[in-house]
Each structure stands twice: as structure tokens, then as C-alpha cells.
Amino acid sequence: EKGTYAHYMLKEMDEQPAVIRNIIQHYQNENGDIELTEGVRELVSEADRVYIVACGTSYHAGLVGKQLIERVAGVPTEVHVASEFGYNMPLLTEKPLFLFISQSGETADSRAVLVEVKKLGHKALTLTNVAGSTLSREANETMLLHAGPEIAVASTKAYTAQIAVLAILAYDIARANGKKLPFDLMQELALVATTMDSIMAQKEIFEELADKFLKESRNAFFLGRGLDSYVGLEGALKLKEISYIQAEGYPGGELKHGPIALIEDGTPVITLVSQPNTHLNIRGNIKEVVARGAVACTISMEGMEHENDAFVLPRVEPLLTPLVTVLPLQLISYYAALARDCDVDKPRNLAKSVTVE
Ligand code: M6R
């Protein structure tokens, strides 16, 4: 039930810090160490490459998951849109691990791939929010998101839950492979939850930003580099599905190879600046669009901020930034949809779960 909330989406965004705390509890043992089931551990320790298969927001979480698995565990990882994978299968390694990411566990495009993969005799792990869902039952193993029911069509808490669980999985693969772990994951996730609380306590700022930048706008750009560019894709998807504003997510450096032609006077460009290794590059990209008339709405992270930034996020571990950078984008999309009188929880043409191929 949505209780006093105007919309499920707002409630579900608000639940995100609690979901992260819930995930920490479910995946740690009494010593505070990550504990996965024997079955999951066995599956991941055998894999020479991970193939992530998903759709929509879950695909965007997969892009972040690839970075986590490669950088933490050192295992090559590919990310595929499910509807493409079945018909254009890449070359597979000898011991592939298939990782299906799906909030509902019922998405037909992903189910079709799982059927093919099983025919080939490969193993699969499903990350889902719904215990007993089809993708969970048909895979060898399941990791649950523990996010509670997600009702709004626009996925929010499932995305952050997926990333947190992917980080836990990456840590476990790293451990299975005898890798040195870069930081205390559970401690950093707890810090993420606190940071999420502080962002959610400042919603009115994002309402103002949505009014200022998006209320009257036909289109919008989301820029970033590295992890920020993946979160930008998610921001663009969120905005287009609930506010019907045409939105493009782009890696900052790619803009001048074409899309910059679309920038005109007043085009809103929402940029994330949270990656220490590229923050100067993305600042250059912001200058390029502003010189062509764009209005910049920049969301940065402490230590990389500039005085004209619209919002400065508290610092979190660079590999975990998507868990916090996505919140402003979710909130801005929500308030933009409200300002434009759109049906936030039930956008046109969309269903919560896409059960046809
Ligand atoms: O249930 P799933 O995670 O498999 O759903 C995948 C997509 O259909 C879903 O994420 C969709 O893109 C959302 N409406 C995005 O907000």
C-alpha cells in the first residue's frame, strides 16, 4: 500500500536506504562477512567469463555490474540486452556463467535466453526481487534483491538493490579467486544508505530543478563518463518513460561525434561528476555544450565540485557512486512528470512486467 504517499514511485524511492540496509543484513554472517549459499559460490567460482542478460533498467544495473565484477573480481564480463542476445549470440567461453537480472523474474525476453542457454548445457544465476518467479525457478541458483514489492512501472529501488547485490556477488567471486578486496564493502554500503537518507531529505531541491530545467522542455541530455554515463542512461530512461520528454544518455566524450548537433539555446544538459579519474574531462564536455547554448544542471560529488553546480553529493566509494548518483535523477524525473501532469505510476504504453517477446 502506498499509505500517505502520493505515488508508489515516491514511496519506492524513499525506501532505498532501508533496502540497502536490508541487503546488508541478508548477505552477511554474524562476523559481518559476506555469506552466499554454497550453490551460488560453486557456480561463480567455476566461471571464466560472466554474461549478464537483462532488459531496461535491469540492463543498466548490469552495465554497472560489469565494472564491479571486472574491477573487483578480475573476471571478464559482458552485458547483453536480452532481446538481442537470443538471436545474435556472442562467442561463448568454455565455462560461461549466465547472470540474469530481472526485478520481476518474468520478463519474456530474458526467459527466452535462459531456455536457449539451458539447451546448450550452461549454468545460470538469477538476480531477482521475486522469489519463485519463472527466471528464479528455471535458473540453477537465485540471489534475491530483498527490496519488497515494486509497484510503480518506473523501476527505482530494484535498480539500487540490483547494484548492491551485484557488488556483493563481485566480492564473493573475488574471494573465490583469491583476490585482494579493495575496501570493506558492507561498511561502504552502510555509508551509502546514510548518504541516500540525506539526499532523500532534500527532495525540494530536485523539485525546483525539475521545474527550472524540464517543465517546458522538449528534450534533455544526460552526460557522464564511466559509471556516471551508465547512470545517465538510467536517468534518461526514467525521464522519458514517465514525463515523455525525449531524453538521451551519452558518455561525455561521444557528444562531439554527433549528438552535439542537437544542442540549442535552452537545451537542458544534466551531468554527473563523480568519477575521480575523469572529472576534468567531463567538465570540458560541460563547457562545450554551454558554449552552444545549453543550460547546465550539474550534479557532482564532494572533492570534484564547482561553485555553480546544482547539487553536491556527499562522497562515497568511487565504485559505488551509482547507488547515490541515481537518486537525484530519479527524483528529477519524478518531479518533471508531476509538473507536466503525467500519470507517474502508470505511464502510457507501458506495463510493469513485459511478458511477451
Ligand atoms: O522485471 P525486469 O527487471 O526484467 O524488467 C525489465 C524492464 O522491463 C524494466 O526495467 C523497465 O525498463 C522499467 N519500466 C524501467 O523503469
TrEMBL record:
Its main location: cytoplasm. It catalyses: D-fructose 6-phosphate + L-glutamine = D-glucosamine 6-phosphate + L-glutamate. The active site is at K352 (for fru-6p isomerization activity). It is found in: Cytoplasm. Its EC number is 2.6.1.16. GO terms for molecular function: glutamine-fructose-6-phosphate transaminase (isomerizing) activity. Residues 40-179, 209-347 form the SIS domain. Keywords: Aminotransferase, Cytoplasm, Glutamine amidotransferase, Repeat, Transferase. It comes from the Bacteria. Catalyzes the first step in hexosamine metabolism, converting fructose-6P into glucosamine-6P using glutamine as a nitrogen source. Homodimer. This is Glutamine--fructose-6-phosphate aminotransferase [isomerizing]. It comes from Exiguobacterium aestuarii. The gene is glmS. The chain holds residues 242 to 598 of 598 of the full protein.
